[in-house]
Amino acid sequence: MPLASDRATDQVQSVTRALDLLQALNRQKVASIKQLHDTTGLPKPTIVRLLKTLTAKGYVANDPRQGGYSVTSLVRALSCGFHGDPLVVEAGRAWAIDLTRRFKWPAAIAVLDENAMTVRFSTIPESPISPFHGTVGLRLSLVSRSLGRAYLAFCPTAERNILLQMLSASKDPEDAAARRPAALLRALQSIRSQGFAERDPNVEPKSSSTLGVPVMDGDRVVATLGLTYFTSAMKRAQAVELYVPHLRSAADNITRSISRLGS
């Protein structure tokens, strides 16, 4: 008989929950049990048990003075077996950092990961006003997130059709719009016309927004580049006017850098 696992997916539930909890912790400097419950949807007793285990193993620390839990430097050991970034990250790192140095907001580079985008590089460490603690490794919906929408809107039609077919079967609530293809295709056409994508305003966190553009190689989207800002800091029109031209310029520079590195 299998251990405590979900027979339908052959996933060990305690492991998936622990990984979900670590990812949630990694996005914040300090998180309370209530915040972790709101973010992950896990029952509070489960969160308490997992935190005790992760604390005992040295991956998490409890700091009552700051009112919560945080990851420790030991989590870096979890990535020591991973080597190398996609060429687009190598090509885009300097341009993303330049955006943050000029405008202070964090920038991110994401690549397609099956039916979602995964953040592979972020300038959060360089940003003094980031809405997030950490996003590298975060999977983002192609339907509701800026970096995902930028990919889906600008990729070739044949690829888009395949992705939409995959997304129509997704059970992720953020992918629900894929089950209304006519409306989604109209939204994607609007994104192509304006040349950039934005996060669905109904998706959390609502206190910030992201502007995203594609990084192209011919007619192929190799990555997406985004800049995230607090909506309380400026109006949407101001952010679009100020940042989108610089995002497009950075994306073009990344494309040229890819060509040089790959030659």
From TrEMBL:
SUPFAM superfamilies: GAF domain-like, Winged helix' DNA-binding domain
Entry-linked InterPro entries: GAF-like_dom_sf (IPR029016), HTH_MetabolicPath_Reg (IPR050707), Tscrpt_reg_IclR_C (IPR014757), Tscrpt_reg_IclR_N (IPR005471), WH-like_DNA-bd_sf (IPR036388), WH_DNA-bd_sf (IPR036390)
Top-level taxon in the UniProt lineage: Bacteria
Keyword NAD appears in the UniProt entry: no
Keyword S-adenosyl-L-methionine applies: no
Sequence ranges assigned to domain IclR-ED in this UniProt record: 74-260
Molecular function via GO: DNA binding; DNA-binding transcription factor activity
BP terms from Gene Ontology: negative regulation of DNA-templated transcription
Keywords from the UniProt entry: DNA-binding, Transcription, Transcription regulation
Domain HTH iclR-type, first and last residues per copy: 12-73
Record-linked Gene3D superfamilies: 3.30.450.40, Winged helix-like DNA-binding domain superfamily/Winged helix DNA-binding domain (1.10.10.10)
PANTHER family: DNA-BINDING TRANSCRIPTIONAL ACTIVATOR MHPR, HELIX-TURN-HELIX TRANSCRIPTIONAL REGULATOR, ICLR FAMILY
This protein's name: DNA-binding transcriptional regulator
